[in-house]
Amino acid sequence: HAAEANRTDLMTITRFVLNEQSKYPESRGDFTILLSNIVLGCKFVCTAVNKAGLAKLIGLAGETNVQGEEQKKLDVLSNDVFVKALISSGRTCILVSEEDEQATFVEPSKRGRYAVVFDPLDGSSNIDCGVSIGTIFGIYMVKDSIEPTLDEVLQPGKNMLAAGYCMYGSSCTFVLSTGAGVNGFTLDPSLGEFILTHPDIKIPKKGKIYSVNEGNAKNWDGPTAKYVERCKFPKDGSSPKSLRYIGSMVADVHRTLLYGGIFLYPADKKSPNGKLRVLYEVFPMSFLMEQAGGQAFTGKQRALDLVPNDIHERSPIFLGSYEDVEEVKALYAAEDKK
Ligand code: P6P
User: Fold this and answer.
1) Mean per-residue pLDDT for 311-333?
2) What is the pLDDT of residue 6?
3) Where is this protein found (predicted)?
4) Rounded distance between C-alpha atoms, residue 156 and residue 273, angstroms
5) How confident is the model at residue 120 (pLDDT cuts 50, 70, 90)?
6) I want to staple 292 with a disulfide (CB 3.0 to 4.6 A). Which of 179, 203, 275, 300 is the partner?
7) Residue closest to 139 by CA, chosen among 160, 170, 167
């Protein structure tokens, strides 16, 4: 009976957010409207990504179609969809996208109170081999939506109102936090709705998996090299961690969130700030990890305390199970004492 009730009591993402919003009587539903436009963008990208495999046959996504027109690459197409969906929501005033060198300042007639930072299709180099990819986003409330400046988005990640990602894999999974825990929704294609499937996600306190591109080992600094060595040759007699590295941040972070363990993209001699972008990769994933009971560290500080100076700034990142990240912090602290 309960199963039947659950099946018919559909907790869609819109209903879920409306429930959340009802806790803030003064809210005017703006966030719900903003989120529904982000969800719309994800649904579009989900169908486009799923068709990408056929693209070679029907000339989409970066191929030339039958009319000989050069089709946009999927990440450019996805960016167009998100920018248009966010502007048409009438709830944003600044957009920062991985795809656009400059921030987008929304025209005054369509301005709203939110700034959205996003990577429309992270890991898109993996599309052709069918590896899961995703959209990552973070949302700030702006102080001055009349004459907004870049300062509104050069804010530490701890000031974000919400963050999330949508993973386009064997199923389309939307993971979201509005600052009161983390919830996962799965797209039911027959309904065209995201349904709550992973309520109140909590990351295990310690995990058995480490996730890093070992190909960069030659260039790692001491603490990172020491930590990875410990994962492979534990000194306390425990069994070694397993290495799982997909090379698509959304997929590696989603597995870490659900199974536990640690994901790291450290600094190295070639890239002293690592590779991942602060605003729309490091901050949203760090926000989610903290909300799920894990943590995120840059090698110097709590990731969410970082104050970016440039909208495309990079940072090293160690994120995941609380105790695993603690070990990394201890190794960097010991290094600082030398
Ligand atoms: P590497 C994908 O290109 C990406 O931006 C992230 O999704 C992923 O975590 C990382 O780069 C992989 O980088 O250097 O290991 O190939």
Assistant:
1) 98
2) 63
3) Cytoplasm
4) 17
5) very high
6) 203
7) 160
